[in-house]
Amino acid sequence: MKILEVNNLNLGFKTESGFRQALFDINFALEEGKTLALVGESGCGKTMSAMSILRLLPKNARITGGQILYKKQDILGLKEKEMQKIRGAKIALIPQDPMTSLNPLYTIENQLLEVIKIHQHLKGDEARKKALEALEMVQIPCASERLKSYPHEFSGGMKQRAIIAMALACHAQILIADEPTTALDVTIQAQIMKLLSDIKSQLGTSVLLITHDLALVGENADEIAVMYAGRIVENAPAKEFFEKPNHPYSLALLNSIPSKRGETLETIHGQPPTIHQDISGCRFHPRCKYCFEPCGNEIPPNFTVGENHMSACFLNQC
Hints:
The structure is a single chain. By secondary structure, the chain is an alpha/beta fold. It has 10 helices and 12 strands. Strands 6-7-8-3-9-10-12-11 form an 8-stranded mixed β-sheet, with helices on both faces. The chain has a 4-stranded antiparallel β-sheet with strand order 2-1-4-5, covered by helices on one side. A hairpin with a 2-residue loop joins strand 1 (2-15) and strand 2 (18-31).
C-alpha cells in the first residue's frame, strides 16, 4: 500500500532575474513499511522535494503544479492548521545536521516533552513516561539520567538518536531522513542506519532516505529514485537498480564508487546546472557520453525497462 505519493510536482523560485523552475514533474511513491532512497548530487532538488512534502519552503518558493498524497489525501490543499496535525506527528523530519538541530538552552527532556504535548496532548507523568520510552527505543544508555542532559553533553550520534526519538514519541508513520549520517564517523553512521532499519521492522514505519551515498543506499533501501537537476531520471527496486542500472547518470554514479583499492574511479565531466541555466531536452545531455540527436532537443519520456523499473533516456528506444 502506498502511504505517500508525489505526482507531477513542479516547484520554482522567485529571483531577481524572474521565476526559475527548480523541480520538474517529480514522481515517486513510498510504500508502507518500506524505505525509498532519493539519490543524487548536492543541489539536484532532493531536499526541496522533501520540504515540499512537509510544506516547509522558503518564502520565495512556489509550488506550481502536482499533488502530494498522504494516505490518498492531497496535503497541498490543506490549511496550515490542518497541516500542523500531520507535520511532526504523522510525517517527521530527521534533519541533516544533528549538531544544530536541538536547542542548546533546553534539556533533552524539555524538548521531547514539548513535542509530546503538542502532538500527543499528554502532560505530567504520562508525558515524561512517553519521553523516556522514546529515548529507550533509540537505545540511548541510562535513558532516565540522559533526559536531564543538555545537547552539548551528547555526542553527534546521540543527538541524532534524540532527534529520532522525537519522531517516535509522536508515532510518526513516515520518517524523512535528510542525509541522516552527515558529520558522523563511519561507525556511528552504521549504528544510525541500523537503528532506522530496526524501527522500520518493529513499528512498520516508512522511511524516505535522502542521500548522495549509494553505498548507504545499497544496504538500506527497498527502492531507489535517482534525481538529476530537478528531475527523476530513474526509479527501480534497489536490487534491480544495482544489478541492471539503466540511465547514463545512474551508471556514472555507480562507477564513481570505490570498489577495489588502487582502482581508478570514473568521473562525471562538467558541473550540474544551476536553476539559472536553461537546458533544452534531457537535462543530463551536456555531461552525457552517450548523448545523440534527440537528447538536446526533446525531454525523454519514462521508458519501462523492467518490472517497476523506469528510466528517462532515449537510448531505450534504440
